[in-house]
Design brief:
heterodimer, A: 380 residues, alpha/beta, Rossmann fold, five-stranded parallel β-sheet, 17% strand, B: mainly alpha, ABC transporter involved in vitamin B12 uptake, BtuC
Chain lengths: 380, 294
């Protein structure tokens, strides 16, 4: 009789315990592909740090609708092949419900066929306009389109009455996408490109190209690339005594560029997300609150400045959080809810996705900044 | 701006880069001449020169001359250790084995540099200021003058060392015929060590004088090493005049090619030249073809 009672008690306890674990919601796995090491680590590292920080904070506050978030991060090393391998792992082995990243346009274009086939939503942190144009059902991005950056620069040039420019672009995905945009939009702003040159991502001497530019009729130079190339160009330009105003892309919107270019960074103008000049924005700016809290959080967590690139990851995680809050737990539901996102004031800008727009941002996502005395200044 | 001024600029930029290639090429030539192997880790010594001086300058806050000295010493020590641990112990190794070992060594050194200092690019201050100087319509930086000056001194030093000092002559003897040299009483193994020491010192010097212009990171050694190798091949692996001309020629052709033809093909030009030389005149531009009596 005692034995019987004990056995019943044991079975009851076991059922109660297992029921308990079933009650607690399963953690939702979000995959992340970032170029944490390699040439693009200036993108992937802040993005990974930011994503981890946001997920940790969400979990500390109790998760989203009772679900904890689990971030599974793989390093693509800025290599498209590794990105594809990692994406396959995330989908087949880790069975994630959504993927954020990759960090670069090249990596993103490589993984798109895989995620379209597997039907998992992807929020890329890369800037190439090809990622969302034409619109692909499962692909979104949080980084501003390079077409918007070009428009910003051209707008300013038009105001300065600059008619003839030279462009110097890097020969990788980011640079060639920028070059396409520069060429496509020039005529619309009354600008003529008199010199169109390229440089390799690992080149250490651009004096031949700059010599050609020095001898041309150009009134300004736009350089489109990511570190360290533009820093070399800034130095070479000073060495050659090039008097042209120098414009850069948002690819160098981090303090690292100023460190590498040193004194030659003075006076360079580039488009950037608002995060670099958050404290200079008027209080009426809808993004100011998120921007300042991002910067403060990142500073507390990592004792470094949160930058434009980390912001892309912030937006990606928060957008997914938004979809879960609206009741989406499966890949398809998350994708549908992403498309319904309207007016989310994030770090990169104010996002409004739609079935025909998976990049979500307008020209206002960029501000023009100038480097003065090794710091950023808003250009009116 | 006049075409002549543009050409002058291409020429000067090309000479400056070419001088660096020549210095690196020396390293290849000296080791090849003493041991008949190509030391593919040469590029990594160039990288070490730049990276270590950046480390001493920015992290340990040494003054510039001291940082440079420290960098050259450590790079030279690395070269000596590399020779002792990787080259000397192998008594029965064929040349091919040793060359592959140097490739392995270069990957090891690169990996250690990446672990120690990360993958970031680092800037180094120039030796004497940033104001450009005008020369026949072209502009150069004081750093370029340093490059020319130091390369010239090293060329003269090399010439004197290999032609007028006993150790230098002993090393040339090893290059001619190792067995005969050891029969005459030359310690061939010590000469091999010297050749590595000199090459790594030269390589690190090259890395230090170019770093203020091009910035440095853990993987600059690959391209620089290959281009220096091209320079040495063009010059016929000579420890003197030939390699200098090879390096300068390479730098100038690269510069003109990038400026006048297409900047996208800059690296391709160096390797096309290498292929042409290997096809048409593999002994280099300045050597007579070697024939072996059977």
């Amino acid at each position: 009789m005692q034995n019987n009672f004990l056995r019943t008690l044991l079975i009851f306890l076991l059922i109660a315990l297992s029921a308990g674990t079933v009650m607690a919601a399963q953690p939702l796995k979000i995959g992340a592909l970032f170029a944490i090491t390699g040439q693009a680590s200036f993108l992937g590292e802040p993005e990974r740090n930011t994503a981890q920080m946001v997920v940790d904070e969400i979990n500390k506050a109790g998760g989203v609708k009772g679900h904890m978030l689990e971030l599974v991060v793989y390093d693509t090393q800025g290599d498209a092949t590794k990105a594809v391998q990692a994406a396959t792992r995330l989908i087949k082995e880790d069975k994630v419900v959504a993927i954020i990243g990759p960090s670069t346009t090249g990596d993103t274009m490589a993984v798109i066929p895989i995620i379209e086939k597997a039907q998992i939503p992807l929020i890329s942190c890369a800037a190439g306009i090809k990622i969302t144009e034409p619109v692909k059902k499962w692909v979104f991005k949080t980084a501003q389109n390079d077409s918007l950056a070009v428009a910003r620069i051209y707008e300013y040039l038009k105001k300065q009455k600059t008619k003839r420019i030279a462009i110097l672009t890097v020969s990788d995905s980011f640079g060639s996408s920028g070059r396409e945009q520069l060429k496509a939009q020039a005529a619309g702003f009354g600008i003529q490109i008199v010199n169109d040159d390229t440089y390799g991502p690992k080149d250490t001497d651009m004096t031949p190209q700059l010599t050609k530019i020095r001898g041309s009729q150009a009134q300004a130079l736009i350089c489109w690339g990511t570190n360290p190339g533009p820093a070399v160009i800034a130095r070479n330009a000073k060495q050659l005594g090039l008097k042209l105003p120098l414009y850069m892309s948002h690819g160098v919107s981090s303090k690292k560029f100023i460190v590498l270019a040193g004194d030659t960074s003075e006076g360079i103008i580039l488009p950037s997300g608002k995060v670099l000049v958050a404290d200079l924005l008027p209080n009426s700016d809808k993004q100011k609150k998120s921007l300042l809290s991002f910067i403060k959080d990142y500073q507390n967590h990592y004792r470094a400045e949160g930058d434009h690139f980390g912001g892309h990851a912030w937006d990606a995680v928060m957008l997914i959080k938004g979809t879960i809050e609206r009741g989406a737990y499966t890949p398809a539901a998350i994708r549908d809810q992403l498309e319904k996102t309207r007016h989310y004031a994030g770090i990169g800008g104010i996002f409004s996705y739609s079935p025909v727009d998976h990049s979500g941002l307008t020209k206002d996502a960029f501000v023009l900044v100038e480097i003065k005395k090794k710091d950023w200044v808003l250009v009116k | 701006m006049q075409l002549s001024e543009q050409l002058a600029q291409y020429l000067l930029s090309g000479l400056s880069t070419g001088a660096i290639y020549a210095l690196i090429g020396f390293g290849f030539a000296i080791i090849y001449n003493t041991t008949s192997i190509i030391n593919f880790a040469q590029g990594e010594f160039v990288m070490l020169g730049g990276m270590i001086s950046v480390y001493f300058l920015s992290v340990l806050k040494f003054p510039l001359p001291l940082a440079i000295l420290a960098a050259i010493s450590i790079a030279t020590a690395t070269g000596a250790i590399f020779e002792r641990l990787a080259i000397r112990p192998l008594k029965q190794a064929t040349h091919l084995n040793l060359i592959i070992i140097t490739i392995g060594g270069s990957i090891l050194i690169r990996g250690l540099a990446m672990l120690l200092w990360g993958k970031d690019t680092h800037a180094m201050p120039t030796f004497s200021g940033n104001e450009p100087l005008n020369l026949a319509g072209a502009t150069i930086l004081p750093q370029n003058l340093w490059i020319f000056g130091i390369t010239l001194m090293i060329i003269i030093g090399n010439k004197l060392f290999f032609n007028y000092s006993i150790t230098g002559k002993a090393m040339r003897a090893c290059a001619c015929n190792r067995t005969a040299a050891s029969l005459v009483g030359i310690d061939v193994r010590r000469m091999v060590l010297f050749s590595f020491v000199i090459s790594s010192a030269l390589g690190s010097m090259a890395g230090i004088i170019i770093a203020p212009l091009t910035m440095t990171s853990y993987d600059v050694g690959i391209m620089l090493g290959l281009k220096g190798f091209c320079a040495a091949i063009i010059g016929g692996m000579s420890s003197g005049f030939g390699t200098v001309v090879g390096g300068l020629l390479l730098g100038i052709l690269e510069s003109f090619g990038a400026g006048l033809i297409s900047s996208g093909y800059k690296d391709a030009i160096a390797f096309i030249i290498l292929l042409l030389i290997l096809f048409i005149r593999p002994q280099g531009l300045f050597k007579k073809a070697e024939t072996e009596r059977v």
